[in-house]
Write a structure and sequence with these properties.
Length: 264
């Protein structure tokens, strides 16, 4: 049987064959898509860098112009002041000086505040009368604290509330101690009628806390002047028909004319 013939390789031939394989691998060209990806990545990175540099170099004034003007505009206040004259309300049978303030809510509600005397006087009272629904009412205590703060006063103490009868109907009342440089004993009160959209809130103070009868007569003394609207006149006309004889002229005067303490 014939034998296979193999070429005889010497050591030099084997060495040349071993060295040629790595050489062929090194001569292979890089893939074309890899080169494209690298170049694109470099281009994108360069564009991003220049964009960031340009944004940082924008002047502050130019950045402020880019802010919408609506962001810089403060909202309109809910209340605006009105002229208190001609006066709409008055305190009957009161010889002491009464000052008044008026303001209007954005929704059209009007608030008139009558102030009798000054805090610390033997006769001091404040009542805010609202026609219309201005704001959502909070608790009796919170509303009293807010109104006291608006007048530069603090509520040192407010007792348990109870209802008292007046010509307007049942009014919520509570013993109150107001404080500033000193303290004064008062009676806080609040009334609201959602049907007629009429209400009031305030306090009556003296050298000692006024009793319920004095407070009721003071509230019954809230009267209208000729500048009132027909709807407001109807509210007071109905209230005056419910008025009792317990608050005559002398009683109304006593409700606001609290006597000073006796000298020792």
């Amino acid at each position: 049987m014939p034998r296979a013939v193999y070429a005889e390789w010497d050591e030099d031939d084997v060495a040349e064959w071993v060295d040629e394989r790595p050489a062929r691998r090194l001569r292979r060209k890089p893939l074309p898509w890899l080169r494209i990806v690298l170049m694109s990545s470099c281009s994108i990175a360069g564009l991003v860098y220049f964009a960031i540099e340009q944004q940082q170099n924008i002047r502050p004034a130019q950045r402020q112009k880019a802010v919408p003007s609506s962001v810089l505009v403060a909202p309109a206040p809910a209340w605006k002041s009105l002229s208190p004259s001609p006066a709409i309300y008055a305190l009957a049978s009161t010889s002491a000086s009464v000052t008044s303030e008026a303001r209007e809510h954005a929704n059209g509600a009007r608030e008139d505040t009558l102030i009798l005397g000054r805090f610390g006087d033997f006769r001091h009272a404040q009542v805010a009368i609202v026609q219309g629904i201005a704001e959502t009412a909070g608790s009796f205590y919170i509303d009293t604290v807010r109104r006291a703060a608006r007048s530069g006063l603090a509520v040192a103490h407010q007792g348990q509330s109870q209802m008292i009868a007046t010509k307007f109907g049942s009014v919520e009342a509570a013993p109150l101690t107001l404080a500033n440089k000193g303290q004064q004993a008062c009676q806080a009160f609040r009334f609201s009628d959602t049907t007629t959209e009429f209400g009031f809130q305030g306090w009556l103070c003296g050298s000692s806390a006024p009793d319920e009868a004095q407070l009721a007569c003071f509230i019954d003394g809230i009267a209208l002047t000729g500048a009132a609207s027909p709807s407001l006149k109807a509210v007071f006309a109905q209230a005056d028909r419910k008025r009792t004889e317990a608050c005559g002229p002398s009683a109304r005067t006593a409700s606001v004319a609290v006597k000073p303490p006796a000298r020792p």
